[in-house]
Amino acid sequence: MSAFVERADRLRLQIPITYRRHGDEEWFVSHVVNVSESGILFGPTGLEPGAAVEMIVSPPAQLGFKVAGPHKCAGTIVRTTEAGTAAARVTFWRGLLES
Asked: Which CATH number covers residue 72?
């Protein structure tokens, strides 16, 4: 018998994402596959499960309590796929002011 685990609503998006390993200086650009309040699936990347990452993403629509626009996020890669995408569990999510 398996327990039902409710997942956050996901929004399929084809938008850019900028990411780096936590502590690195160099940023990389990739593309979001889908995003929710709790996580982001993006790629391709060379990241492995367990990697701490920082991300900057600008969803065009509100996600739960998160408003549309640029956000800085931090999290941990929880899984990867053969296609090179990485799923990050987001532990920090802050809106950035646009100038």
From this structure: 2.40.10.220
pTM of the model: 0.81
DSSP per-residue string spanning 14-68: --EEEEEETT-S--EEEEEEEE-SSEEEEES----TT-EEEEEE--SS-BTTBPS
What the block records as the tokens of 58 is: 């600008």
Assigned domain for 3 exists: no
User: What pLDDT digit, counting tens, does each position of 13-49 carry?
Assistant: 788 999 999 999 999 999 999 987 789 999 999 999 9
Per residue in 54-69, pLDDT (tens digit) is: 999 887 766 555 666 7
Q: What tokens were used for 98? A: 């646009």
Label the pairing between strands 71-80 and 86-95. antiparallel
Q: Which residues pair with 43 in a beta bridge?
A: 31
Is-contact 96 68, C-beta < 8 A?
A: no
Which one-letter amino acid corresponds to residue 91?
Answer: T
